[in-house]
Amino acid sequence: MVIVIDPQIAGISGDMLLSALVDLGANKNKIISGIKIAEKFLPHSIISSIDFKKVKKSGVESTTLFLKINEDVHERKGIELRKAVIDCADKVKLSQRGKNFAIACIDTLINSESKIHGISTTSVHFHEASSIDTLIDIIGVTIAIEDLGFFDEKVVCMPICVGSGHVTFSHGIMSNPASAVLEILKNSELMIKGSSDGDELTTPTGASILVNFATSFSESYPLMKIKSVGYGAGQKDFDNFSNVLKIVQGINSIHSHDTVKILETNVDDVSGEIIGNLINKIMKQGAKDISVYPGITKKGRPTNLISVICTETLMDKILDTLILETGTLGIRIFTSERFIVPRKIKTITMNLDGKSFSIRYKIFNLHQKTGFKIEFDDLIHISKSLNKPLRQVESLIRTEIQNRDT
Fold first, then answer.
1. pLDDT of residue 163
2. Under a CB-based contact definition with an 8 Å cutoff, are residues 127 and 169 in contact?
3. Exposure of 70 by Cβ count < 10 A (0-12 exposed, 13-18 middle, 19+ buried)?
4. What is the pLDDT of residue 48?
5. For residue 228, what pLDDT is reported?
6. Domain with 302 in it: what CATH number?
7. CA-CA distance, 221 to 212, in Å (whole number)?
8. Does one domain contain both 25 and 158?
9. Burial of 169 (0-12, 13-18, 19+ CB in 10 A)
């Protein structure tokens, strides 16, 4: 199963994510009961009424959280909210995994404020996030995820729309996205995008929950069969788009599937030694693969086409390396989908010529056909240690693996 969170147009907030999960089928009565417990752990905050109802946002029927609270509080310590999350998680009887998730969400929020203001986490004070809303969003989403069984699923997040313009908060006016949102998303694999709507579309609480919930990022929907779709409406209304977060639940292809970047450049004045060094350097930076193809270009000039496969997050670093190491003045960039045959990595221990070696190999099974490939670095190590030809070592190990796996 795969879960796709789609905040490309309307961004994300805690209540939008919670509402989308309810729309997808999470037990709203269980969530409401858990949320009502929350007010016991935050003094001066009373939940007057709470419900999830169907609304239409620019013609899109979706679920939204109707919440009325009475509060006489303008700021709270981060550690106070953290304790409330822990106490509420215990009272609601969340699983240990759910409790850890809820704590991670509030810690992400606290750590972002600590970093921005240059103070310890114990000194952090919340203003906008001091409301019981924050506790409701984190506990409510955690209950919903557990109820749907999504902690065990692959969760893919698409580009997050943060809006544009400016935001007004306790420290004054700041350009959007707010510093807290930037800090929360800074070291994650998730990507953001702006828009011309002139409003805040992604909140710190929404971002905090998202970075702990999503397991991967993709620019496009993965290959899947759609099972269900949930629509969570935000509180604001916009003229030119539906303020709705989509969550799509689907069934994966039999193959693993991801999106990669392909970087290509032609070089005609670079020596083989430089290219050899480039290959090693780029692979150490985390590229998935690099290939060099000889060819002929204009005016009969010999050339080498360098092609690198990498992730979106590593692209900028590898672009810099390609330019600095080769002197190229242009690099073509493509986005490509990959199908990956499911595989497992196994390790065996073998005694060869009185020496013990640990040997890794990848094994795959597709359409009732099984195959395996021995880790090349291990083959080289054993070949050097025994002073035997690589082909002989591979043959011995291959025979041993076949005997053990049959």
1. 82
2. yes
3. exposed
4. 87
5. 95
6. 3.30.70.1380
7. 20
8. yes
9. middle
Last residue of a domain, one of 309, 340, 371: 340
**Measured distance CA(134)–CA(256) in Å, rounded:** 36
What is the signed CA dihedral for 39, 40, 42, 44, rounded to 10 degrees? 80
Cβ(32)–Cβ(51) under 8 Å? yes
Examine the domain organization and report whether 212 and 266 are in the same domain: no
pTM: 0.66
- Residue 360 sits in a domain whose CATH number is 3.10.20
* 248 lies in the same domain as 352: no
Q: Regarding beta strands 224-233 and 244-252, do their DSSP bridges make them parallel or antiparallel, or are they unpaired?
A: antiparallel
Looking at the fold, whether 220 and 236 belong to one and the same domain comes out as: yes
d(CA 207, CA 182) in angstroms, rounded, equals: 9
In the chain the first and final C-alpha atoms are separated, in Å, by 31
CA distance 303 to 53: 63
pLDDT score, position 294? 95
The DSSP-derived string for 188-241 is SS--EEE-SS-SB-B-HHHHHHHHHH--EE-SSPPSEEEEEEEEEE-S---SSS
The answer on 99 and 37 residing in a single domain is yes
Below-70 pLDDT ranges, the chain: 123, 125, 127-130, 166-172, 198, 253-257, 405-406
In this structure, the answer to whether residues 10 and 71 fall within a common structural domain is: yes
Note down the domain range covering 55.
Answer: 2-254
130 neighbors 4 (Cβ within 8 angstroms): no
- In sequence order, what are the beta bridge partners of 332? 264
The residue to which tokens 């002073």 are assigned: 387
Contact predicate 262/334, CB 8 Å: yes
Classified as helix, coil or strand, 172 is strand
Task: Report the pLDDT value the prediction gives residue 312, as an integer from 0 to 100.
Answer: 87
Domain final residue pick, 192, 227, 254? 254
The predicted pLDDT at position 341 comes to: 77
Query: Is residue 349 left, alpha or beta, with left meaning phi > 0 and alpha meaning psi from -120 to 50?
Result: beta
Return the pLDDT at 366: 72
Domain count along the chain = 3
Is residue 147 located within the same domain as residue 246? yes
What is the residue type of 230? Answer: G
Per-residue DSSP letter, 255:
S
